[in-house]
Write a structure and sequence with these properties.
mainly alpha, 6 helices, elongated
Length: about 160
């Protein structure tokens, strides 16, 4: 077995959580490898030290108090520059107001261009209808009455 594989299993070896076959292989490896033996001894020392530690009983509110303090410390660490936090909070309302004003201006411009295009189309269509129906010829007539025109035609335009 390679050193990297042995080192990965040393904790399980100490705790007795591996098969007898693997225990035998690791034991043989540790006898011949100084690096793995040293790491095994260090891990065993840590395990013995942890076994000697007496279990501490905490009050029921200790965890809640600890969580609160950790949250407060984390919040303090996250806000190194209060001015930047103020700018971050002000950005959303300012952006919303700018978007609102932009939409009003853009809507007005769009409405105006649509109205002008519609008006132009309506004028063109009206001219085409007048031309097709023959009603457009009346616009070329002068501001005289029909009786004056009839009289000019009857007399030949000589008065």
């Amino acid at each position: 077995m390679k050193c990297s594989q042995v080192k990965k299993k040393l904790t399980a070896y100490i705790d007795g959580e591996i098969s007898e076959n693997e225990q035998a292989i690791i034991s043989e490896h540790v006898k011949s490898c100084a690096s793995c033996r040293q790491e095994l001894e260090e891990l065993a020392a840590v395990t013995r030290t942890l076994d000697e530690v007496v279990d501490v009983e905490v009050t029921p509110y200790f965890r809640a108090h600890l969580k609160t303090r950790l949250r407060e410390e984390k919040a303090d660490e996250e806000k190194p520059f209060p001015f930047l936090e103020w700018i971050r909070r002000a950005t959303i309302p300012v952006a919303a107001a700018a978007l609102f004003l932009f939409s009003i201006v853009a809507g007005g411009q769009l409405g105006r261009s649509i109205y002008q295009a519609t008006a132009q189309t309506t004028r063109v269509q009206a001219a085409e209808i007048d031309y097709i129906t023959g009603l457009g010829g009346f616009e070329e007539m002068s501001d005289v009455s029909f009786s004056a025109i009839y009289e000019d035609l009857y007399t030949g335009g000589t008065e």
